[in-house]
Design a protein that fits this description.
The complex is a heterotetramer. Chain A has ten helices and ten strands. Chain A has two domains: 5-244, 3-Layer(aba) Sandwich (Rossmann fold), CATH 3.40.50; 245-282, no CATH class. By secondary structure, chain A is of the alpha/beta class. By secondary structure, chain B is mostly helical. The longest helix of chain B has 37 residues, at 83-119. Residues 1-14 of chain B have low confidence and may be disordered. By secondary structure, chain C is mainly α. Chain C folds into two domains: 1-92 and 298-336, no CATH class; 99-294, Orthogonal Bundle (MetI-like fold), CATH 1.10.3720. Chain C is globular and about 85 Å long. Chain C starts with a helix and ends with a helix. The model of chain C is unreliable at 328-336 (pLDDT under 50). The chains are: A alpha/beta, B mainly alpha, C mainly alpha, D alpha+beta. Chains in contact: A-B, A-C, B-C, B-D, C-D. Chains B and C meet through helix 4, helix 5, helix 10, helix 12 and helix 13 of B and helix 1, helix 6, helix 7, helix 8 and helix 11 of C.
């Protein structure tokens, strides 16, 4: 049986810029196979710069591997025929980290929902399309009348991210690649977003590749875990591996999980603050 | 896109509806004021066209070299034409040149800039060569060619020629804007939503850059009017039609500055300056709309 | 590093393609105009009533300049000639060599425009930075902004004529026209240098006044935009001296786009300032290009326009090379 | 900031108003004639000159600067390119002093007085059937390097041209001259190809200058060393003239007086100016200001318009022109008719050409386009004294065919009678884009025809494109000068020997790009060319016959006489030729200008003219 989505020995190298002696190896000989027959959640865990986002983007076909190949139903992504490419786009969807940047500020939030329906020809008329959208919104716990017709900055981060989940759900995909879906969400809302993800698997039978730097949430919702460190897989296995980490890096990750303490808020998002800092110093 | 600390997402009360572009534009004092000035200039010319006998544009229709007075509010030329009557033709014509040229330049420039920036690769390489070539070859060369090939250059010819050369700067600028815009997450969303490259350019990138394109359009407008005036002053303008540039050309070629016929040369010059001012204000206004940081400050 | 070399190689190919394409256009376009360079000469002869029966003359010149050959053959000859570094003779100004014409005109143009461009850029940028930084409440600052707007909106040829009228006639401080005193020849002496500067003053002023306005206005809005950036707020929060913030943080960051503009306008420098040159009777290259295009003097067009093309293309190339060093975002976009 | 914008606006506006106010001057407002088509001639009489009071800088008395007082400054119309080539056989810009200060000619024709002035030669004689012309040269002429000027130089020059007819101005030599023989050191005989009693007037084949320039004799001992006379820059020219080249750059050329000029010994005369500068000052305004400032003594033709001249003369009363009042100008010998393409319908019919002629208001053209600097023309000849008997002889013909008449109604009627629907016409009016004069005239004529209901498309073309369009006959109308203005020579321009079908290039704009053919006229013209030009008894009847045909056909439409508005500044130099003292032609760009600077001997040997220092 051919897996739905497969990464075969994928390496991605970003050419060094000026002054950089070495090129950056973002991902090295990465292999993954996802059989979508059994819905499952695979967590890909790693710190920032570990290559996890690059991996996700390659699985989505947004980035090309330097060597190796990404296969969709056994066929290289680069060589899909028109119809197959469309099928791939429907079956493999994504949720991104930044719930603001994913919206084009020119449009109301409806835009992200209507475009896929229009592009993939999912509805025959406006009423049908409207019904589909409302159903998807309700499924992720949003009231259509509170969300539709609004501009992105009129909604909270949580609402925006849930709309993105609804958008993915709309297409009834087989796989959703969720890249840090809660890292920019206020702590109090993370729980409900994660629930949405679990719900996707349980109610709609969608497999999820859950990309995160946060071992805790990975442990909460996933069936198996892949730990990435500097582009390489250092540990891989069922979710139980958290209880018995082998690799020192995994151990480090686990030890840095904050102790649940109601008086202490969840720490500032490390990856985000790093990237924000990086941009500032640019 | 830098995210500042204040952008951290919380479940705060949703903010009020953000003003759309149209409101932003209408609320911008510079755009409104520039627009009013622009319309005032054009309106005066059009109203003048209704009130002043077009025959007075012809040579020998009125006493020569008169300073402004009741019968000729802006005086007369050495050729015995009413300056006011000429203005009624020159202002709309110059604006027409600006409009057509800016439209052509912006449309061609955007097309090439977006395509080149978004698709990259060899398409980009080829387009860059074309853009750079057009940046480098002097317009004059083409103008002389066209003047020799067509029978009498008209205002429309001028506009098209200028427009055909007005796209290379916008193309370059839009290309680099596109390069930065295409890394934004909403482009990824558009891609996984099944949008083609063409869709993404027209439906995602263009709307994002509308105010910016508007500012560019107005800038191209200014440049086109200036180019028309420059070419006309070199004697390459439309001979049988009046534009602000041709008016300056005729006034200079009859030595009006030396002879102190200030009403002849100053009228088109001042109008040109006011027109620039109006357009420049609109340009600044669009800049503010597309770059909110400027909004509060200027 | 290897990536950078590849990047440079790619830009270089683009540079080459640009130059070759542009040169081909410059070769072909004038040949599409009905008539040939001899027509200009015949027109000149005919204007003094001596245009009759010049068949032999025309034939001889056509042959001398290879104009009787098929166009593709002329094109090959042109490339071969270029490869040998030979720009040939001017047709309209025979027996003048194209290279001589260009090299007598070029120093004047480049000298005038280099100084005026850099000067107006410097003054405009600094003024714009200061004015953009301050709260625009004071009368002086308002007056400066207004003056810049007026300067920017004045057609520069009109400004040129007015300057001429004021400072060469009403108050004759500067000479009316030309680049140096009649009867002298260009040489490197103190007296001659002073003479050249005196002659360049008015054309320079007319160019500076107009472009100053432009640099001023663009720097001002850049500064206003930068003032809102976080790092400025941060610097202010740190309690740095405002003047230090202005120059260390604000000005430096605004400098990049401003410098880009400067580099681009330097590329156009060799094209000359045609109208200014015409008004001040300044012996620059703008005039040479203008008259050669009007007279269809193929070799001069090819030689002088090629100069512009190459310099513009080189500036673009240089910017492509330098940019990644300055702006890492571009580095990623272009090399990634 | 918002208020700033408004205050900016207000400041700009007030600034402009102030400028405008400063320029404005109180003046009596003349009467304005509205709406109706005005015959401008009548209006002009009422016009008062508006005197701006504010910015007048009266020419202050100039401190006497000895060097300036000995210098003649001439403004030229463009840069000198190439600056270093002084070769009359390749360089097209001979008037940058090459032919008026350096080289000299056998004879100079003073068109103003009708004199044929011997200079390097002392006289000429035709043989009985006018197939050979023998010229006697002066025996005391030397080149600037001291070598004697002899018949050898003449023979060498002609042989050089015969060998390479592609030398500039060579073709007419080859067409007319069979050979040149040296009789003795100071006598040469020109053997002509045909009988031609007009040869001594042909400046393109004989060194006798009427208009502009002539065939130039070069020194054999210098030029024989050059293998190819075409690539010889001759940047240090050896000439016979009173001046030698001192400096030449793109923007100016300086000539210095020679103390060893042959003429000083021969005539006992030294030209006034020690130095002559030709200076390029840029456009009209600069030249005008330089005249007011006394930086310039005279500008070449075409730089200054009448309006600017009047302003200059008002500010600096020392600046004069040929006439004290309008039209100010001297008559150039080449009148400006409108060429009408006789091969393009409807102008293949004489009626249509006549109809067009009636639609042109020549007075308005003269008053508006030329700002009153010229007068209407009845034909293609200048109104010189020598032409008068010819004009008088056809007075009744001109009554019958009024070439100067403007009658719009009649013109429209004639079009109708000829079956022409003028609303379908769209006339291609080709204009030389570099000629300010043509551009201005086109504007006025197009307005006149437009008023009558005829659409005119003005097509300004530069050099080569204009040349192609006109020579191939791709135009409907075009203004052009008809040279040299001699009776028979100008009629010869209509000779069918120059005719070519449309699309083929004719020899000259005026001969005959308008595609006119009439064998009867040819016959008469050929007879006139075989008649000595001064034989009025034979010529006048022939002219009458020719004009009976010409006027009936009207192959071109006479418009105006050509004005030569040449200001002279009398601050440093006096004695300029003017209408009050018309001893010479006031043209600095012609080879004849050296007879203005130095003066010349009349036929009794008395010295005439020459400019003198004012102090």
């Amino acid at each position: 049986m051919t897996p739905l989505l497969q990464a075969r020995d994928v390496t991605k190298i970003f050419k060094g810029g000026l002054g950089d002696r070495a090129a950056t190896v973002a991902l090295k000989n990465f292999t993954l196979a996802l059989d979508a027959e059994q819905p499952t959640i695979i967590a890909v865990v790693g710190e920032s710069g570990s290559g996890k986002t690059t991996m996700g983007r390659m699985l989505l076909g947004l980035e090309r591997p330097t060597t190796g190949e990404i296969l969709y139903r056994g066929k290289n992504l680069l060589r899909l025929a028109r119809e197959e490419a469309k099928q791939f786009r429907i079956e493999v969807q994504a949720i991104f980290q930044d719930p603001f940047g994913v919206y084009n500020s020119f449009y109301r939030v409806d835009h992200v929902l209507t475009v896929p329906i229009e592009k993939f020809g999912l509805a025959h008329n406006a009423n049908e399309s409207r019904a589909m959208i409302e159903r998807a919104l309700k499924a992720v716990g949003l009231k259509p009348e509170d969300t539709l017709g609004r501009y992105p900055n009129q909604l909270s981060g949580g609402q925006r991210q849930r709309i993105m989940i609804a958008r993915a759900l709309l297409l009834r995909p087989k796989v959703i690649i969720a890249d840090e879906p809660v890292s920019m969400i206020d702590a109090s809302l993370r729980e409900s977003i994660l629930k949405n993800l679990l719900q996707l698997k349980q109610e709609f039978g969608i497999s999820i590749i859950y990309i995160t730097h946060d071992l805790t949430t990975a442990y909460q919702i996933s069936d198996s875990i892949i730990v990435l460190y500097r582009g390489e897989v250092v540990e891989q296995g069922g979710v139980e591996l958290v209880n018995d980490p082998q690799h020192p890096y995994t151990k480090l990750l686990i030890s840095s999980i904050p102790v649940p303490d109601p008086n202490r808020p969840w720490g500032e998002d490390e990856e985000w603050s790093q990237s924000a800092h990086a941009e500032r110093t640019v | 896109m830098a995210l500042a600390a204040k952008d951290i997402i919380t479940e705060e009360t949703p903010s009020a509806a953000p003003p759309g572009y149209s409101t932003l534009i209408l609320q911008n004092r510079k755009i409104v004021f520039g627009g009013i000035l622009f319309l005032l200039i054009l309106g005066t010319a059009l109203a003048g066209a209704l009130m002043i006998d077009p025959k007075l544009r012809r040579s020998g229709s009125i006493t020569r070299k008169l300073p402004p007075h009741a019968a000729a509010v802006l005086g007369t030329t050495s050729l015995g034409q009413s300056v006011a009557a000429q203005m009624t033709e020159a202002v709309p014509n110059s604006i027409q040149v600006g409009l057509i040229a800016a439209l052509l330049g912006t449309v061609i420039g955007s097309l090439l800039g977006f395509v080149s920036g978004y698709f990259g690769g060899w398409v980009d390489a080829v387009l860059r060569v074309v853009i750079d070539v057009f940046l480098a070859v002097p317009v004059l060369l083409f103008l002389v060619l066209i003047a020799a090939l067509v029978r009498g250059v008209t205002v429309q010819h001028m506009a098209i020629i200028i427009g055909l050369f007005a796209w290379s700067w916008p193309a370059r600028a839009i290309r680099s804007q596109t390069l930065s815009l295409k890394t934004r997450p909403f482009v990824d969303v558009a891609r996984i939503s099944g949008m083609s490259g063409f869709d993404i350019i027209t439906r995602e990138l263009v709307p994002q850059m509308l105010p910016w394109l508007g500012a560019n359009f107005v800038n191209a407008f200014i440049v086109a009017i200036l180019a028309e005036a420059g070419l006309s002053i070199l004697g390459l303008g439309p001979q049988r039609e009046m534009t602000l540039g041709m008016m300056i050309y005729w006034s200079l070629s009859y030595g009006s500055i030396l002879q102190n016929m200030w009403w002849w040369w100053l009228t088109p010059v001042v109008t040109l300056m006011l027109l620039f001012l109006a357009l420049y204000l609109i340009h600044l206004g669009f800049d503010e709309v597309s770059n909110p940081r400027l909004r509060t400050q200027v | 590093m290897r990536a950078y070399v590849a990047y440079v190689g790619q830009r270089f190919l683009i540079l080459l393609a640009t130059i070759i394409l542009a040169m081909t256009i410059v070769f072909l376009l004038p040949r599409l105009v009905p008539g040939d360079p001899m027509g200009a000469i015949m027109a000149k002869l005919s204007s003094v009533g001596a245009g009759r029966g010049n068949e032999a003359l025309i034939r001889d010149y056509m042959e001398r300049f290879g104009l009787n050959k098929p166009v593709w053959q002329q094109y090959i000859d042109y490339l071969v000639q270029l490869a040998q570094g030979n720009l040939g003779y001017s047709i309209a100004n025979f027996p003048a060599k194209v290279s001589d014409l260009i090299f007598t005109a070029l120093p004047w143009t480049v000298g005038l425009l280099l100084v005026t461009t850099v000067l107006s850029w410097l003054i405009g940028s600094v003024l714009g930075a200061v004015v953009g930084w301050r709260e625009s409440k004071s009368v002086t600052i308002r007056a400066v902004v207004v003056l810049a707007l007026v300067a920017y909106t004045t057609p520069y040829y009109i400004l040129a004529i007015l300057l001429l009228f004021a400072f060469a006639f009403l108050v004759p401080i500067f000479p009316l026209a030309g680049a140096y005193e009649v009867g002298t020849k260009p040489e490197f002496t103190f007296a001659f240098t002073v003479d050249v500067l005196r002659h360049a003053a008015l054309p320079a002023m007319s160019i500076i006044l107009v472009s100053l306005g432009w640099w001023f206005l663009s720097m001002r809005s850049l500064m206003i935009s930068i003032k809102g950036e976080d790092y400025i707020l941060w610097a202010e929060a740190k309690g740095l001296f405002p003047r230090r913030i202005l120059w260390r943080y604000g000005f430096r960051n605004a400098l990049l786009p401003q410098a880009t503009g400067l580099a681009l306008s330097l590329g156009y420098l060799v094209g000359g300032a045609l109208v200014t040159e015409v008004i001040f009777g300044y012996p620059g290259i703008g005039w040479l290009i203008f008259s050669s295009i009007k007279g269809l003097d193929y070799p001069v067009i090819q030689g002088s326009v090629m100069l512009i093309i190459i310099s513009v293309a080189l500036v673009n190339f240089a910017m492509d090379l330098i940019y990644p060093f300055i702006d890492p975002r571009i580095r990623q976009a272009q090399t990634g | 900031m918002k208020t700033l914008k408004f205050s900016a606006m207000i400041l700009v506006l007030t600034a402009l108003v102030v400028i405008a106010g400063a320029c404005a001057a109180p003046g009596t407002l003349p009467q304005v004639v509205q709406q109706t088509v005005v015959v401008p001639q009548t209006v002009i009489a009422q016009e008062t000159v508006i005197v701006p009071q504010t910015v007048v800088a009266q020419a202050t008395p100039v401190p006497v600067d000895q060097a300036r007082a000995e210098t003649l400054n001439i403004a030229i119309g463009g840069p000198i390119v190439p600056a270093d080539a002084i070769n009359p056989y390749v360089n097209w810009n001979r008037d940058m002093g090459m032919h008026n200060f350096c080289y000299e000619y056998f004879f100079y024709q003073n068109l103003q007085t009708g004199e044929y002035i011997p200079w390097l030669a002392t006289g000429y004689e035709y043989n009985a059937d006018s197939t050979a012309l023998t010229v006697k040269l002066r025996d005391d002429v030397t080149w600037s390097d001291g070598q004697p000027f002899t018949a050898d130089d003449v023979v060498f020059t002609y042989e050089m041209i015969q060998k390479d007819p592609s030398l500039n101005w060579g073709q007419q030599v080859v067409d007319n001259v069979a050979s040149v023989e040296k009789v003795d050191d100071h006598t040469v005989t020109f053997n002509l190809k045909t009988s031609n009693p007009h040869f001594h007037l042909n400046r393109e084949a004989f060194p006798a200058v009427g208009i502009w320039g002539g065939t130039t004799i070069v020194p054999k001992h210098i030029w024989e060393k050059e293998a190819d006379p075409k690539t010889f820059t001759n940047s240090n020219p050896v000439c016979t003239g009173a001046y030698k080249l001192a400096n030449s750059t793109e923007q100016s050329r300086t000539w210095e007086r020679r103390d060893d000029w042959w003429g000083t010994k021969a005539f006992g005369v030294t030209p006034g100016p020690k130095t002559v500068n030709l200076r390029y000052l840029g456009p009209e305004t600069n030249v005008a200001l330089a005249l007011v400032n006394n930086e310039i003594d005279t500008p070449m033709i075409g730089i200054l318009g009448v309006g600017s001249f009047e302003e200059v003369a008002r500010r600096n009363p020392k600046v004069i022109a040929w006439q004290k009042d309008l039209p100010f100008s001297w008559l150039d010998p080449c009148p400006r008719p409108l060429m009408v393409n006789n091969a393009h319908p409807p102008f293949d019919k004489a009626e249509a050409r006549w109809a067009l002629s009636y639609l042109i208001d020549r007075n308005a053209v003269a008053d508006l386009a030329y700002e009153g600097a010229t007068t209407p023309a009845w034909g293609v000849w200048p109104d010189y004294g020598g032409v008068k008997p010819y004009k008088d002889a056809i007075a009744d013909l001109l009554q019958q065919y009024p070439t100067e008449a403007y009658d719009e109604a009649k013109g429209l009627q004639m079009f109708k009678d000829a079956g022409v629907d003028i609303s379908t016409l769209d006339l291609k009016y080709v204009v030389n884009a570099d000629s300010n004069e043509e551009v201005k005239v086109a504007q006025v004529i197009a307005d006149q025809l437009g008023r009558a209901g005829i659409k005119v498309t003005i097509t300004p073309l530069s050099g080569p494109a204009e040349q192609t369009a006109v020579l191939e006959g791709d135009y409907d109308i075009k203004l052009h000068s008809f040279c040299p203005g001699y009776i028979a020579e100008n009629l010869d321009l209509f000779n069918s020997k120059y005719y070519k079908p449309l699309g083929e290039k004719v020899a000259l704009f005026e001969a005959n790009s308008f595609r006119y053919q009439n064998p009867e006229l040819d016959k008469i013209v050929n007879e006139m060319l075989a008649t000595p030009p001064d034989d009025n008894a034979k010529m006048i009847p022939l002219f009458q016959q020719a004009m009976a045909i010409w006027l009936k056909d009207l192959p071109v439409i006479p418009v105006v006489q050509a004005p030569a508005l040449v200001p002279f500044n009398t601050t440093y130099w006096t004695g300029w030729p003017t209408a009050d003292n018309p001893w010479n032609m006031p043209v600095s760009w012609w080879a004849t200008f050296n007879t203005v600077i130095a003066g010349y001997p009349d036929k009794d040997g008395k010295w005439v003219g020459g400019i003198k220092p004012a102090q």
